[in-house]
Amino acid sequence: MQIAIQQGKNCPSVDGAYNVGAVITVNGQFATFGYSRQVPGNTHAEENALNALLAKHPKKEYLENVVLYTTMEPCSTRTSGKKSCTDIILECGFISKIFYCVDEPPLFVDCVGKEILVGAGIPVIQIPQLINDCKKLNSHLFN
């Protein structure tokens, strides 16, 4: 999760957008990372990390025990109208577990990503010890 927090620090701060970092491991080994707005087009951290993983494994070969670490709960609604991170995670079909720190605050939309993912059978585990570190990534929105 520390790598995800470091990735979140790479986000250009924008009013009206969260700074989020994400890391994906495969079989316990680091595979890819992503952060918000890493790629043009209002992209999200989880989306960028998953796209990077699929670029390495376009046929999804060897994708077992895939774990996502993200500094914030995956979104379930995007104000841009783009596909949510929750939907992207469910569609890829290979994420076996998700660790996150901060629940998505209802600043822009109501988020039910955790509930949807758990309902789909994916364990979603909060890491409360790092909540303050993850909240600092978004101090531009809460000052």
Describe the fold and architecture:
The longest helix is centred in the middle third of the chain and has 12 residues. This protein has a five-stranded mixed sheet with strand order 2-1-3-4-5. The protein has one domain: Cytidine Deaminase, domain 2, CATH 3.40.140. The protein is of the alpha/beta class and 143 residues long. Helix 3 packs parallel to helix 4. Pfam families: Inv-AAD. This is CMP/dCMP-type deaminase domain-containing protein.
Task: Summarize this entry quickly.
The protein is of the alpha/beta class. The protein contains six helices and five strands.
Supply the key terms.
single chain, 143 residues, alpha/beta, Cytidine Deaminase, domain 2, 5 strands
Quote the distance from N terminus to C terminus. Answer: 25 Å
**SSE run:** HEEHEHEHEHH
Question: Which CATH class is shown?
Answer: Alpha Beta
Low-confidence stretches: none
Strand content bin: 15-25%
- The number of distinct structural domains comes to 1
CATH homology superfamily name? Cytidine Deaminase, domain 2
GO biological process, one term: nucleobase-containing compound metabolic process
Organism: Furculomyces boomerangus
Protein name: CMP/dCMP-type deaminase domain-containing protein
Domain CMP/dCMP-type deaminase: 1-115
